[in-house]
Amino acid sequence: MYLKNLSLVNFKNYDEAELVFSDGANAFTGDNGAGKTNLLDAIHYLSLCKSYFNPIDSQQIKQDRDLFMIQGKFDKDNQEEFIACGVKKNQKKQFKRNKKEYTRLADHIGLFPLVMISPNDIGLILDGSEERRKFIDNVISQTDNHYLDELITYNKSLLNRNALLKRIAETGRYDPTLLEIFDEQLVNSGKKIFEKRKQFMESFTQVFNEHYQYLSDDAEQVSLIYDSMLLNGDFDTLLKSAAEKDKILQRTTVGIHKDELQFTIHGMPLKKFGSQGQQKSFLIALKLAKYSFLNQQKGYKPLLLLDDIFDKLDDKRITKLMKMVSEEDFGQIFITDTNPERLKTIFNSINVKLNLFTIENQIIRNEQN
Ligand SMILES: Nc1ncnc2c1ncn2[C@@H]1O[C@H](COP(=O)(O)OP(=O)(O)OP(=O)(O)O)[C@@H](O)[C@H]1O
């Protein structure tokens, strides 16, 4: 599966743009603010119906214009697939596959899988545990529809239970039957989510380790550990024993909403002890593991988008990474960099053909390297 071409109208800083891609390595180069990341984001739209960076569709319309259009042709198993996305100010987003409009955007997601690696992702390491739970939830739910349903049910039950705990504290009154019902709902979906996360993490961690060790040349010992209260006991029992504490605190203190992914380097927390390059390598290995997982589950290779990937990585890691993503385990890739000479040198050194685009004042020139 690969994207053959892309056409834009009034998307972010572009009036109009037309690009034809190769099924291997493609790169966008230009100064800061030239619009390199915007092109990656347009590709992200075609694949996942939304921007990677900004959830508000209307803000992607070029300033002072009324609508944007993104169109692209994918090749999937030698069949052409024409995808079009249009957003008009104050109107619902239109999304079409082969000229037929989707009634549910969810039906499109997963058909053209994509993995983006961007400097924005550093929050996965530096921010709170919710970011890391979102990461695993996102990967699992891309290949398992039931998982998302269980998550929705769990979160609803959690809200209900917390609201009840608050009411109990405020009124002093207590309906044990209602609490039992919410507990049962929470335990039911919580256990399923826990089992899926645990099972997923077993294979994911292994692939992650392989990618990290390759990138770092086995120089560093890193680990990715799934930590859940449910590893220490049955959810039902844990919930019952925390009941009094929960009533005092007016919230549910045990459950899979407290799960954490621990990232360590040489046994110490990565957030505090990892260098910026090591943190970036960790992030890349996580995303590449996501890529491998989607590839294995879907049976075809997702697109891989690498935004500003070279900053903070040493030359050895950059070359290893580029070599890896250009080899047969990976498919079509898109890279952004401010420095065209660096890109040319790296791709020449690994003997891989690069389809290079140079962007200046909205003009996109294509030169084959
Ligand atoms: N809705 C919009 N209308 C007009 N311009 C926009 C809009 N959204 C973003 N831009 C412009 O797009 C430019 C940023 O583009 P982009 O992030 O793609 O740059 P880049 O080439 O990746 O830069 P860098 O090398 O700094 O990462 C900015 O100049 C910004 O003002």
Automatic annotation (TrEMBL):
Pfam family, one: SMC_N
A molecular function (GO) term: ATP binding
Gene3D superfamilies to which the protein is assigned, alphabetical: P-loop containing nucleotide triphosphate hydrolases (3.40.50.300), RecF/RecN/SMC, N-terminal domain (1.20.1050.90)
Main localization category: cytoplasm
Keywords recorded for this protein, A-Z: ATP-binding, Cytoplasm, DNA damage, DNA repair, DNA replication, DNA-binding, Nucleotide-binding, SOS response
GO process annotations (BP): DNA replication; DNA synthesis involved in DNA repair; double-strand break repair; SOS response
Coiled coil: none
A single cellular component GO annotation: cytoplasm
Positions of ATP binding: 30-37
Compartments where found: Cytoplasm
Source organism, top-level taxon: Bacteria
Domain RecF/RecN/SMC N-terminal per the UniProt entry, residue ranges: 2-350
NCBIfam families reported in the protein's UniProt record: recf (TIGR00611)
Entry function: The RecF protein is involved in DNA metabolism; it is required for DNA replication and normal SOS inducibility. RecF binds preferentially to single-stranded, linear DNA. It also seems to bind ATP.
HAMAP family cross-referenced by the UniProt entry: RecF
Family, as annotated: Belongs to the RecF family.
Name of the molecule in the record: DNA replication and repair protein RecF
